[in-house]
Specification:
The complex is a heterodimer of chains A (106) and B (195). Chain A has 1 helix and 7 strands; from the N terminus they run H-E-E-E-E-E-E-E. Chain A has 106 residues and is mainly β. Chain B is built from 11 helices and no strands. The termini of chain B are far apart.
């Protein structure tokens, strides 16, 4: 009886799968300039020389000062401060603040 | 004698099953905070919380009158002490809030709003074991008044305006790095306007 109970405990414990969960990223911030806008992808060159492509979604907040804008306000050449999070190997833009005056290339 | 043996075997089996269930739980969750509590776990925890709060406190009405000043005090206090986990809008949608087990609740919704004033006060003052919720009581009357003001603000959460959320940002705690970033951000975003 004792052996049977020990065997049951050990077997069930070993059979239980260890939880493997995707690592949720942290929120990061960066200052830079928009280098490309293609659909939901926005290319940024950061002030420290790195390049990154952020993905927009419906939750991405785009603002200029206190004014709330939509994604169409994002233009190449705009100075931006971005908040983003890595999710499923993509950089998801959470918030994009634009320079107080539009500086985009025409 | 035979009856006693059966009882002992029953007790041993119950203990073994409980231990097995515990082991399975540990192995399955890795005690990670990334998981969501199971439904039965959440119900059990809520029931335990309800039992743990003395009925005299549960039925206590908020002794602080709900004035705009009291709500504003609660709002500033919430932004400074609570928003790191609960977010300014009470949604719980912050890095820390999302990482807790259980996750910080959306306080605008019924499970929080249906708690009595006394229950909210008790939770603020005493915290909740095995969650990320600390007890904020400092044993002073002023501290209790602050907690009651927080209760008023929690009631106000469902109708919080974007302007109020914006105003709360000034009260959110910031690290030296965040302050440096904000200064740099403002300078950088405004530089374009000056050219």
């Amino acid at each position: 009886m004792k052996n049977w109970m020990i065997a049951m405990v050990v077997a069930m414990a070993l059979a239980a799968p260890a939880a493997v969960r995707a690592h949720e990223g942290h929120t990061h911030k960066a200052l830079g300039t928009i280098t490309s806008v293609e659909g939901v992808h926005v290319g940024i060159k950061t002030n420290d020389g790195k390049t990154m492509t952020l993905m927009l979604d419906t939750k991405t907040a785009v603002t200029r000062g206190k004014e709330k804008l939509d994604a169409t306000a994002l233009k190449v050449g705009e100075r931006v401060s971005v908040e983003y999070m890595e999710s499923n190997k993509m950089l998801m833009a959470q918030a994009i603040k634009l320079g107080t005056t539009a500086t985009a290339k025409k | 004698m035979r009856g006693v043996t059966f009882v002992l075997i029953g007790v041993a089996l119950t203990l073994a099953l409980t231990a097995t269930a515990g082991l399975v739980y540990l192995r399955a969750t890795g005690l990670s905070t990334k998981a969501e509590p199971a439904t039965f776990e959440a119900r059990l925890a809520r029931a335990a919380r309800r039992v743990a709060i003395p009925s005299a406190i549960r039925t206590t009405a908020n002794p602080i009158p709900k004035t705009p000043e009291a709500v504003a005090e609660g709002m500033a206090h919430f932004a400074d002490h609570c928003a790191s986990c609960h977010a300014n809008d009470g949604s719980g949608n912050t890095e820390m809030g999302r990482g807790l087990f259980p996750k910080a609740p959306d306080m605008r919704l019924a499970p929080t709003q249906q708690l009595s004033d006394g229950e909210l006060f008790y939770i603020i003052e005493r915290g909740i074991r095995f969650t990320g919720m600390p007890g904020w009581s400092n044993g002073t009357k002023a501290g209790e008044e602050s907690s009651w003001q927080l209760v008023h603000f929690i009631r106000h959460l469902p109708e919080l305006t974007p302007a109020e959320i914006d105003a709360m940002k000034a009260h959110n705690p910031r690290s030296p790095d965040e302050i440096r970033y904000e200064i740099e951000e403002e300078r950088f975003l405004n530089e374009g306007a000056q050219k």
